[in-house]
Amino acid sequence: MQKRLHELDLLRAAALVGVVLIHATAWSVGAGEAPLSSPLALLADLARSAVPLFVLASGFALRARYREVPAPGRFLGRRWRRTLVPWLCWVPVFAVLGVWDGALPASGAGLGTWLAYGGGHLYFLLLIAQLYLVFLVLPKSRRRLAAVAAAALALQLGLGWLHTYGPAPAGPLGWPLGSISYWLAPYYAGYFVLGALLADFWPQVRARTAAIALALAAGLVIWLWSTTTIPAGDATHGAYAFLWPGRALFVGALGAAVLAWGSAVRSATVAWLGSRSLGVYLVHPLFLALAGPPALALGPAARAGALALGSLAFGALAVAVLTRSRLGAQAIGEEAPMRPAGPARSVARLSLR
To answer: Within 10 Å of residue 167's Cβ, how many Cβ atoms?
Structure first.
């Protein structure tokens, strides 16, 4: 049985909280608001490191689990069931909700455009499904993996720089390199392969706390400075903020820091959130859609805090309920619950309490 990594649970839980903050602060901070314009705007942009951290955690978890290259068919079948099936399950739910609250047009063309953009926050499932293909071609050798990580980071930073600072792409390249870039694998491949590399060099990483602290401090400074260079406009803010190249060092160092120092955190709550992070990610926006409009009566900071805590609690409760059934668990990308037969059933129930 594989040893559970408490630090990986902590990283996933922290990334989940970051995603919840992204969605909660969106009710108080404008999409194009400069990060240094207010503390709440800065928090909102800091939270946008969560999606890259989720990608890094995925690369780490897969490399730690599969030391040998798995059979492609079996691997992709199992992994895509945990990403594409939930996408298909929740797209109708959030489409209906979006039309109901006026966020989406009821026309077929409007819904088609929404789907092409990934289906709101569900785009993350499409991104991870692509990265599973990347995982299958990663080399077994540590030296070659390091070279692939360097190449993937260079590609990611180059694409991120072009998207953030370059002219908007036109013609056939306008859609993949501009509009839907925030859910395409090349823009995140560096984070993903870096996560795999951290898994391979895990003992060495944990021993270099001073180097990690230095990289984290440098990454923080670079990220803060880079926020002042971002052009205004929808082409660079919102979901496209995940692609800012100035965020990369901070994300990598923060991920390494949590993984290196988080083993001391032995919290049942953190472990549960880490293991159920995908499910909570999927369902927590339901609360925001319902509670967001009434929360506008609150001040910006109080509104963001109330929506963040409420949506996190709602998401956790919904996942706890859904994972009690096989269909519910599969709908949020979780393993179906075991169903022991005969006398063993009562024993299993006792062991899970």
So the answer is: 7
Write down the pLDDT at residue 191: 98
Q: Which two tokens stand for residue 33?
A: 């608001």
Q: d(Cα 247, Cα 47) in Å, to the nearest integer?
A: 11
**CA distances (Å), 74 to each of 127, 198, 233, 244, 269, in order?**
19, 25, 43, 35, 32
Compute CA 44 distance to the chain's CA centroid, rounded to the nearest angstrom. 15
Q: Is residue 62 in a domain?
A: yes
Structure confidence at residue 60 (pLDDT) = 96
Q: What is the pLDDT of residue 336?
A: 61
- pLDDT computed for residue 345 by the predictor: 38
Q: Tell me the residue range of the domain where 340 lies.
A: 6-352
* CA pair distance 17, 170, nearest whole angstrom: 36
Q: Which amino acid is at 196?
A: A
For the chain, list residues with pLDDT below 50.
Answer: 1, 338, 340-353
pLDDT at position 161: 96
Specify if 186 maps to a domain: yes
Domain tally, the chain = 1
Torsion of CA 223, 224, 226, 227, to 10 degrees: 120
The amino acid that residue 199 corresponds to is A
Dihedral sign, Cα of residue 85, residue 91, residue 96, residue 98: positive
What pLDDT, on a 0 to 100 scale, did the predictor assign at position 18? Answer: 97
Within a domain: residue 1? Answer: no
The residue to which tokens 């803060």 are assigned: 224
Structure tokens at 298: 């609150």
Tokens for 208, please give them.
Answer: 């270099």
For residue 134, which of 64, 217, 69, 193 has the smallest C-alpha distance? Answer: 193
